[in-house]
Amino acid sequence: MVEKKENVFLKEALIHLLFILIAICFIYPILLLIGISFSDMGSIMKNGYRLIPEKFSLQAYRYVFASPKRLINGYLVTAFSTTVGTVTSLFVTSLLAYALSRQDYVFRKKISFMVIFTLLFNGGMVPWYMLISNYYKLKNTVWVLILPYLINSWNVIILRTFFQGIPKEMIEAADIDGSSEFRTFFSIIVPQSTPSLAAVGFLIMLRYWNDWYLSMLFIEKSNLHTLQYMIYNMMNKVREMMQDASAGNMSLEDMPTETVRMATVFLASGPVLFVFPFFQKYFVKGLTVGSVKG
Amino acid sequence: MKKKLPKSNRMHLKKKTMAITMMALPGIICLILFNYMPMFGLILSFKNFRYDLGFLRSPWCGFDNFKYYFTSQDVWRTTRNTIGYNLVFIVSVTVTALVLAMLLNEIRSKTAVKVYQTTMFFPYYLSFSVVAYIGYSFMSTDYGVLNRILNMFGMESISWYSEPKAWPFILPAIHLWKTVGHSVILYYAAIISIDSSIYESAEIDGATGFQKAVKITLPLISPIIIVLTILSIGKIFHSDFGLFYLVPYGSGILQSTTDVIDTYVYRSITQIGNIGASTAVGLYQSVVGLFLVMASNIIVKRIDKESAIF
Amino acid sequence: MKRLVTALITVLCAVMLISFSACNGIGTGVTQQDKAVNDGTSEAIEQSGTSNPADEYAKIIWYMRADSQRDFEVVMKKANEILKEKINAEIDMRFVEPASYNEKMKMVIASNEYYDICFTGAGYNDYYGNAAKGAFLPLNELLPKYAPKTYAQIPEDFWEAVRVGGNIYAVINYQIVGRQTGMYMLKEYQERYNFDLSKAAKFEDMEQFLKVIKENEPELYPMSSAKQPLYIIDGFYSMGIDEIGQRHSPGVVAVGDETLTVVNQYEMQSYIDRLHTVRDWYLKGYISKDAVTDMSSSAMLEGKVPVHYGNMKPGSEIEVRGSFGGREIVLQKFDNAFVNTSSISATLNAISYATRYPEKAMMVLEMANTDKEFYNTLCFGIEGVHYNKIGENEIELVQNSGYYPNKAWAMGCQFNAYVIKGQPLDIWERTIELNETAERSKLLGFVFDPSSVSTEIAQCNAVIEEYGPGLWTGSLDPDVYLPQLVEKLKAAGSEKIIAEKQRQINEWVAKKSK
To answer: Is the pTM of this model over 0.90?
Structure first.
């Protein structure tokens, strides 16, 4: 008995060690990034990139915060589009996925094919842009940041697979009890699937948070720009300057340096870190045990 | 509990179908609006697109648009790179994510699990411009971390951005670093949905950790593994543009090992503004992908009918 | 299997059916409707119509490549007040961030989205490509009628540079066109080593300075470089190259060559020599090993790159200071100024082919190019808020004012702009003089139509992207890689491109001499 306990302890310790090493590998590049954002450009030039900044400096952050209003606006817009988008998308996606997971659903095969087809075939950016901009009239509205990404076939298929793992007996039992489909969904399926819903929900949230493409194409009012779009522009200033130089025009502005760019990235990606634990709460084992037996 | 009569059985079926269809409806409408309607754009593959004539009246040009890609010297190279990298990606990410997810499951401390998951996930939400920049901080010839380490061991600096041979290793490593967290989350969610009583009875029978993993966990989460793999196979002719275009910083000489179909199209075709030609290549990629998915699906059906996609 | 195939066919048919019925409205609606308007309008012009559209109010949508500004609304309001009073029009100006401008406009144009005016140019929003594909309105008749002053203030032969298929499709933003290059150096370095800059007359002469700097400060990379370095792009003239069509595409004419023979620049001795010089400098440590990744611009900002080769024009020493982080610089001119087709078409404004108000749009452009009040409001904002006048034509910018797009050269005729404190007072006079005395390319007015060799150009692009950056930054050995580049170009059809260029040039010469 004592041997077994030691074995288990050793095994766990090894696993922990492995994960700590992995964690370091994964985080190191990012810490490097943060370190750069806090340092002074001059010492980078001399000594290369270092983890702990040689000369600590807030100059990058000072530059970024010089126009805080735009940054705050970006946060607000992105927060709205992300929250509303994630909730709605998760709702619509899981409903469709559930419908497709029911073996006894008449249209199951045809609609599944429909969903998968869109994963493979794409009409191209131009018609998509045309429809959204000219026909659905979504330009310059906050909804254009949400609607185009509502359904992602990938997520539908993933959730469908998870839902298929739920024992059919539970659904049949509810059916016999006279429950409507919606009730069954909300009172049985959802509680059973918290891990997968949380996982997919988090991935959806990331998609919304990280997007700059929708802003670039459809938003022309700067107060509706998302955070990531602002960062995209800042990171690309160098290319812009080169373009202007070859047209015979230099800029009188100062270019954002590496440190400034890194500071902006950190400010934009930071919030996701704090939201993740919220999703992790749901990664708990399901309540399958004992619900159907007897 | 009364058993329902045959007549009401049919009505019951109809009611059920209606209800389920209602649930599926919002999703289907979105798909139609945003995915199916734009598909008319595919006809551009066969047209010589003029802006003032638009989609319908621009002249047809048969398969001319396909010439751009298929007669180029780089057809073989880009196809080889695209498929090669994707195969390496699929295998490396699936295997690593599975192993990590299973190991995570073994840890008892919930907080530790949360912390580790968070760290593995960090890179996933960074955009590729940032990743490219991080790459630069490692691979810069004079300032980069990699070369400084090499120098510490007395070895010479390498110009990573001019060394094509290194990139078939660099790119999968970066891709793994960035995306493994995504798969770990999904596999972990699947693993913890497994009824723990199964494990308990296996332990009573004397199964070791390894046996449990191979004989219980893997088979039980195989549906999600298979689905993810088949979907990835469908995309085998596509590539993650950010990874292949931004990370090498456009260093041309690396193209022999980093040029994939999507980057080739962007560089040569998009730059000359021929939308028909880029659509044509996209059509080609999609058609091949469709065949591959159907083929994989048939194979999977033979093994385990329920795991197939459709 | 059979069921799957049937399913597939059903789905495809359904898809096609849905989308074709839907797209009956798409792609035709705007075209037909506006074609009618256009036809009606040109009739109106000929008849000197009953209700003159030029007098009616219109709101003109204008896409401009500029960063969004805090005080955008306020400034546009003021600009529109001026415009309304003078020509009974207003503009709905839309700033699109420069980093995204090309991509965004590609979508707007390809999807037939409605707009009136857009900024364009040889390198922005693909002027030549879009014009050839029918995106823009021909301005031949509108220009003399509704923008006579704009038309007159630019030399006649310059307008040839924006002719595509016989039509003028854009208004030239008149600015510096004479390209001249030279060396910029940080003042403190010139003083530190007592450099006599007049000793340098061409690109290669810079070596003497680079050598001294490197000897004394070995950790520096004294020469600036980039993935597409300016000593290649702006240096074409110094290599005796007069480029044709898309930058870097095979086929150029030697400067001053009366016979206008098209040759492959990658086989020209001057090009090979330049590559060798650059390679030599790379090996000697004058050029950064990371130049090919474009990161060295930040080193320049920090003052760690003392020597820079680039474009020169009156007042450029002030502008270039920005790239050096605001430090003082000195300069030395190298060649004469040179004007060619692409330098003229660098910055333009075009009118959409589908515009509903062609006359009004033209009048707006006339205002932007000739009316000092309107133009300077667009460029600098509101007096007293965003800038202060310190002379009759001179202004001082207010720091962090909330409006400074810094795109005077994109909005109209730059010679009407106020002189900013720090620029020489006679900057515009000197620039005009430079333009007028510059050497003219023998190909001025010739525009290459790439459509018959577009496949070859696309494939050559790929080859150049592969070898170019490495060769241009010296990180690849030209003796090994240049022959590979030339060979691959030939395999991609460079000879065909050169032959086509020659054929079109001969045709153009024949037409001119008639």
So the answer is: no
